[in-house]
Design a protein that fits this description.
This protein is an all-alpha fold. Helix content is about 80%, strand content about 0%.
Length: about 110
């Protein structure tokens, strides 16, 4: 099976987003008082994992949920971005992932 550039970018972006969400959730959990950031990062990590696997199999059935969760996580992480580098990097990864997944939606696998 040959995958389009857009689909490969989507999978790569999901994988990168998962990594940063895991790091951000761990960091924010240790900081304390950032329960919503931790919750959304974990949710985003899990949904990116599901979506990347689905896209790899030629399906886009998790796309809307992935994009929505990535956007929500980015918005939450941006609240801490000025004083925590991991939150800034996580927010950026979430935004990149949402955009890459949107671009992959209209492509064939």
């Amino acid at each position: 099976m040959t995958m389009t550039k857009e689909v490969l970018d989507c999978i790569d972006s999901c994988t990168g987003c998962m990594k940063l969400c895991a790091e951000c959730a761990e960091h924010c959990e240790q900081m304390g008082g950032m329960d919503e950031c931790v919750r959304l990062c974990r949710l985003c990590h899990d949904e990116c994992d599901r979506h990347a696997k689905a896209v790899h199999e030629g399906r886009h059935d998790h796309l809307e949920t992935c994009v929505s969760i990535c956007e929500a996580c980015a918005t939450e992480c941006e609240k801490g971005a000025n004083h925590m580098d991991i939150c800034r990097r996580c927010a950026e990864a979430c935004r990149r992932c949402a955009e890459a997944c949107r671009k992959a939606k209209g492509t064939s696998i």
